[in-house]
């Protein structure tokens, strides 16, 4: 205890003219001469003859070890007509708490405006709220407008105003009451004063509060009768302001993300249409535009062809573009109404045909066209002839459009076509697609490579365009450009030396291009020549026409190509590797005879395939082990939950049985007493009437209580036998540790009935005392002192019941706060070495069944958390 404990603001009795502090007693205490109760009495007896302080009450607070335990104590002395007497000696093992600012220590009433003992915390919280509201509102004005910012300021202002009312309003401090006005008032030992019913003492604020609710640390004071409504209003406006500012922040202030593993968020799945835009080429008399629209992100591909009569070379331009349309319901400058005119202008500028009148579409929807993937191809029918075309689904059943066997968020598909230029006769095999956000990308690459190997013919310029939703160094893209693919492609943008990203941000139109690449133009040809590649970011007034940029590559077909990148005609890496392998095989075969390096390559490829299959099996085993362990944990948690629910049911049943038995005991006594009571002939009719009325009320109340408890007991038994197990079995695993089906059912169906039964029992017990008093006047009517004594004892028992028992256990008549039952899940998680249930969904998983690389497969372990389905 600190040295300033003598100045502890302990509430003192009001001073009057007839009261004063015994200076001798105070000096004795301060000097340390008082060491025991006998010393206190000795000091008090020396001033017994002082009439001025006779019958006066006063208290002295000091630091002294009165109890002799080596601790600092509070000495509480009371001056009465018999001298000093020992009142209390309590260990002061707590720290002194500052007084209420603005409170009165010994007045008749507390002020209307007070702040709590932790007023500095209230000021700090107020400043933080104010700063956050002003920052969000000021930053929102340039982008959202004054109206939305003003709405946020109004909500924040209302929140701060209600917070100030809670922090500065008197919560209902009970003034000092020396004499209780009624019997319902109780005495508070801490305040040394009487308090009205419902008032409780707050140890933090050191005052009694009317209708005390709780002590709020954020406001630094209690919440009681006078500021409870402001507290609820503050919570309401706080939630509204917080939600509104979060919406404003995420809509207008959230910066574009560069590390988006899935730019097509699930809430944006109906936000885009895939529309192709042609090349900016103006020197080409022939144009060929291919687009892949879908209801989500859109990839547009364009081929512009120019034939050089002198060299018999054909220049082609292929482009991919994702256009976000009105399905997204974007607001502000990014709305489709503001962008569509500029998108049309870009489309017109980049299309060499007049008014796009010669363009036609091929391709089908991947399901219902109003809500699923669409990958159309648009081409100029006046310049190009369709040799063959079709669609296939990205699933294990590619021939069935709309099939989805990989657990994708939406149906995915690819549109393909083989085109022949009507003038030069060059053939182009074109495939346009759009991958899922993260699921099934590896399988999609494998399927597309297999399909292109069967669709495209030798001599065709084969191209794959679209938004693959993954970066160049990921497994799906590496597979398409790697030697293990049956149809090896080349990333033409990388070949042309193009750097930088193609993605601005999901639904973002004013930010800069990020470093993330999602849009590709991949190609393959026996004599592939890439002349140029570029990323085009069209803007109007600083706003992009989509959240993706255009990507375009320029190719040269024919024998007279020039200006190829790296100064030569480039063959694909697969062709180069095969040519080198064939030459080396011929040399070795000439030297060593029958040995052929092609056999060695085949053996190596088979060995790699076998290793990849082994890695896949290991990955599958790990996944199955995780599923089994999670299933074991789920069974254990459900079993534990069911056992705890049965314990709750048994506890409720025991409570109801106890109440019913007590009521039955009192009911039986009342009925037996009524049956055996001898009523004299000349008994007072008023007493007899009161006796009959009280007996009837007691029997009725107790009987109703027994019936209600019996009905509740039957309801609990029926719920535990027929419904509880199904409720636990159907409970979501994420809520198994926090939700109690029986508690929820009890609060909904039985809580109010139980409270009513308790109230009826209490009322019946109250009337039972009156019944006993009236029965004594009838049973002992010939005597005077006996019924009076019995009546007095009944009245004393009634007061003891009302003031000591009923007031202390009155909280049983209020619905209890719902608390969840904890389980031993952490122990089971540690035993099984699995991630917390908060990060793992046990019901439904979607795994990438084939690892992207051996290194990735090695990193898979039993402790690796798997992402659940969205």
Brief characterization of the structure:
This protein is 41% helix and 15% strand. The chain is an alpha+beta fold and 870 residues long.
Calculate Rg over CA atoms: 43 Å
Multimeric organization: single chain
Question: If you average the pLDDT, what whole number results?
Answer: 70
Structural class: alpha+beta
CATH architecture of the largest domain: 4-Layer Sandwich
> Total helix count?
18
Query: Between the first and last Cα atoms, what is the distance in angstroms?
Result: 58 Å
Share of helical residues: 40-55%
Give me the count of strands. 25
**What composes the largest sheet?**
6 strands, mixed
EC number: 2.3.1.225
Biased composition (Polar residues): 847-864
Protein name: Palmitoyltransferase
Domain Palmitoyltransferase DHHC: 185-271
